[in-house]
Amino acid sequence: MVWSVAITDHRVSLISTGYRTVVRTSGNWNQGIGDMTEQAINGRTALRLDRHTVMTVMFGGALATVAFDFFGQSISPMLGFSGLAPVPLANNVIRVLFGEAYSPGAHFLHYLAGMVAYPVGWLFIARPVLARLVPGMSWLPGSVIYGVGLWIFALYIMAHLVAGNPAFLGFTGITWVALAGHILFAVVFAAVAEFRRHPAAGLTDR
């Protein structure tokens, strides 16, 4: 994989491609070696570090976090299923790593993950990788796959390997509510990101 940098008046762009390195200066494309697909230029694998991307991360991440919390702490218990407790889990991680729980830090980690880390993971890692591995895959099934990946990260890596809880919290009721919640998070954020990429067309690339 080759990373190229595009610099414009107020934008820095990184383009991931296995074929060509492209540098954009003053509106012109200076080409490297090999071929680059039009799909990469149009944004499938283009990563733009600009104000638009920052707003997408913050707004989409906030909306997805609200959806996750609303589902896990309100809708799921109202329907008779388990409720999610991401903040106590984060507090458990803090206790294991630092020897003492810290509730404000746990809330901070929860919102940092939801509003920054997970959205960045979709835009800068999951979406480009999926576009390369399965070029025809649209954002909706891709975001479902990403949600499953977030679920594995949260319930196996963080909850089990780091915090010492049973793997996937013992595959109890909360396990499957967490799966649904993480998929919901990923779909909501990906929908926001897709809409902001193509606001005029709406969410037509399903």
Write the layout of secondary structure elements.
Layout: E1 2-7, E2 12-17, E3 22-25, E4 28-31, H1 38-41, E5 46-49, H2 51-78, H3 86-98, H4 103-133, H5 139-162, H6 173-197
Antiparallel strand pairs: 1-2, 2-5, 3-4
Helix pairs in contact: 2-4, 2-6, 3-4, 4-5, 4-6, 5-6
Description:
With 206 residues, the chain is mainly α. A hairpin with a 4-residue loop joins β1 and β2. Helices cover 61% and strands 12% of the residues. The chain is globular, with a radius of gyration of 19 Å. It is built from six helices and five strands; from the N terminus they run ββββαβααααα.
Helix content: 55-70%
Give a short account of the largest sheet.
3 strands, antiparallel
Rounded average pLDDT? 81
Overall shape: globular
Structural class by SSE content: mainly alpha
Number of strands: 5
Beta-strand content bin: 5-15%
Q: Strand order across the biggest sheet?
A: 1-2-5
Oligomeric description of these chains: single chain
H/E series: EEEEHEHHHHH
Low-confidence stretches: 1-45
How many H/I helices?
Answer: 6
| Through-space gap between termini | 27 Å
In short:
This protein is mainly α and 206 residues long. Helices cover 61% and strands 12% of the residues.
